[in-house]
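Re: that chain you flagged

S.,

Sorry for the slow reply, it's been a week of failed gels. I finally had a moment to sit down with the sequence you sent. For the record, here it is as I used it:
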Amino acid sequence: MEKEPDTINRTVNCLPSMPALPHETGTQNKISEYFPALSIRISDVLDEIGAGKRTVMERRETYLLRERIMTIAAQCLELPGEFFHFGSQSEGTTTPGLNSDIDLLISHTDLNIMTDWRDWEAGMENLLMIHDDITIPQQYLLQDIHKYTPEAVTIIDNERCVRKDSGQALFSSERWKQRTEHMVSHYGEVFKNGPSVSNDPDWDLVSTLPVCKPLPEIQRWIDRCRGRHWPPAQLLKAARKAPCFLVPAGHPDSDYKREEWRLSPNLIERMLMFSFNMAQIKCYIVLKLIKKSLFRKIVGDLITSFHCKTLMFTTIERTHPSLWKEHNIMYLLLLCLQELRKWLRLGCLPHYIIAGVNLFDGKLSIVKQKLLLQYVNYLIKNGLQDLFHIDIDNLGCRLQACCIRRIKQGGEGELGGVVLRYSISLLLKVGYLQRILLNLTPIIYTIQSSNSTFQQSIYNTLLTAVQGFTNEQLKTVAFDLINHLYVVYNSVQSSKCSRLPNPAFSEIISRFQFCLNTDIASSRLKLASLLYCFGHFHAAVRVLDDVEKRYHSKVKAVCRVRRNEGESDLRVFASMITDNYENVLSEQPFAFCVRFIREEAHCAPYVLWFEMNRAMTEEEVAQRDVYDKNWMDNAEVDACPFLRYLQYLTYGGQGERTKQLYALEVLESYIADPRNAINMHHPETALNLLGHCYEMEGYYQSALYIYELSLRRYHTNNAANWHVQRVQRLISNLY
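Prediction finished late last night. Pasting the C-alpha cells below so you have them in one place:
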C-alpha cells in the first residue's frame, strides 16, 4: 500500500485546489482540496480507457441487438424461450482491463409459473411458487401441478421432480441444472459457476424460469421508493410490469437448497442501471476497479460486481441528484465506500429490491468482513490515494501527473483514446455479426433436415423472421437475419435452374442486389461462383473485380464455425484502423466465410462438392461434435482464398492465361504468408483449392504435397483424403 509514495504525493500536490462543494448539497463530509481536480482526471482517464459515453452506449446497443437476434433465431427454430444479456458488458460498465464475463440469461417460456391457483393453464407444465414463514427471503420452492386439472401432482413421473417430506412433488433446481449440464456437455467442456453452466469460461449462461405475474416483494419495493427523487416514477411504473426470473440456486443455509429457486429481478436492475448518468456509470466502474485490484488482495473475489451495484443503488437513492457530476467522482466514491463501511460494521448488505436478503451470506464470512472493514477504513482515511496503485488498464500510472502525457501519446504496447474507442467499436460489430452467423448455422441445418421441401422450409423460416418486423425492437435484427437467409434462398433457386431450362434465372440473379451488403465479400463471391458455374465468365470477372477492390489490407475475416486464437485481441482491430476512422466504421471491413450447402451444389465449383462429403468413413462422421454436425456437410471456405481461386477459374475460362497465372501466384503467396494465419479459419480448404489449381496445371506431385499439408492441419473430416487418392491414381497412371 506504500508503493511509490513520493510520486503519488507529488501528483496529489500538483493538482489544483478547487472550491469545496456548496452547502446546499447537504453533505457533512470534509472534502479534500484535490478531489475535484482528481475527479476530472479520473473522468478523462476513463474516457481514455474505453469507458466514455459513446462506447458505453455502443456496448449497450450491441448487446441488446445480440439478445434480440438470439430470440428471433429461437422463434425460427420453434424453441420456446427468450434471451437476455445482463451484467457489465450489456450495461456498458466495463473496460478492457476488467475483462468482464458475458452474462446470458435464457428464459424458458414453455413452463407456466403460478403465483396462485388462478394462474393455472390447461395443457402447460404448471409450477406453483411456494414461500412460507420459514422459507428464506428471495427463495422459492416450485410445486408440480397437473397439466389438465388444477391439482397438485402426487405421483412423480417427472425426472426433474423430487418428493418433499410433506408429500409435495417439487421441481428441483439441482436436477434442472444437471439437465442443463448434460445438454451443454454435448458441445464440449462444461464450466460451472454458481447457477451458470456454459461451454466457455468467459460466459455465464443461466437457464431460468420467468415469473410474469405481480409479486409482493416487487410491489413492496415500489411502494417504498414511491415519491423519492430516484428511482424515477416512470421506471417504477415499468418495473411493475417487468418479468422476474427464478434462477436455479438455493440458499447455502437452507434445508431445501437442492430444490430451491432464487427470485431475481434482473430486468428491473437493468432499468436502474440504464437510468444512470455518466458520473454514476464512471463511479460504478471505478468501484469495480477498486474491487478487482485492491479488495481482491484482502478478500479475494468474495466481493462481486453485484455488491458494488447495490452500493451504487443505495448511495444514489440517499444522495441529492445535483451531486452526481463528473467533477465530484472522488467524493461520490467516498460516499459509496462509507456506505460499504456502514454495512460491514452491521455485518449485513441488504438487497436493494428484495427485503430481508443479506448479500454477504454465503459470500463474505465475519472474519473476511472485519479484514475488509479495516482496509476500507484505511482507504477512506488516506483520501483514496490507493487509486494510484490500481494497475488494471494502467489506471494508477495514467492518474499520475508525471505519466499522463506519455500515456496519452500511447505507451508501449498500449491502446488509448480514439484508437481504443474505434477498436472496441469494431470488436463489438464483429461480435454482433458472429452472433448472426452462429444463429444462422442451426437454422440452415434444421431447414435441411426438415421433412418439407427445402424451398418451403426456408420460405416458412423467412416468414417467421419477418414477424420480427411487427416488433419495433426486433426490426433491425430481423432484417439482418432475413438478408442472410435470402442469399441462401436465391442461391438454391439458382442451383435448381442449372439443371432445368428456366427463364426466371435472370430474375433470380437480379435479386442478389438486395442482399449483397451482408459483408464486403461473401454474398458477392457466391454470386460470382454462380455466374462462373453457369458459364457467364465475363459477368463473374466483373463481380470478382468489385470484390478485389473492396478487399483491402485492413479487412478482417469472420467465421461462423471456427475461432482463431487472438483474433478478438483489441490490437488486431487497432491494426485495421486507418487515419480516416469514420470510413473504417461505415464500410464494415469484414469478410465472412463463403458457405455452400448441398442444395446449392450446382452454384459451387466442382472441387467444393468434396467439402460437402469430407468424411470418408462413418467413424469420421462420429467424431464430429454437435457444432461440427451443423456445418460439416456443407462447404465452408475463407473469402480471400476463394476470391483468388475463382479468379484462377474464370480467367482460365476466358483464356486469359497471364491473369490466370497471376491469380495462382497471389493465392500461393496469401496461403504461405504467416501474417494471414489469423484470417484463415479453414486453412485446410484453402490448401485444397491450391492443390486443385496445381492439378489443373498438371503439377501432380506439387498437388499431392499440398494436399498432404492440408491433412497435417486436419487429418480426418478433410476432403484432402479424397484428393490424395485421386492424385495418387493419376501419378501411378503416368509411370
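What I noticed first: The longest strand covers residues 203-211.

Talk soon,
D.
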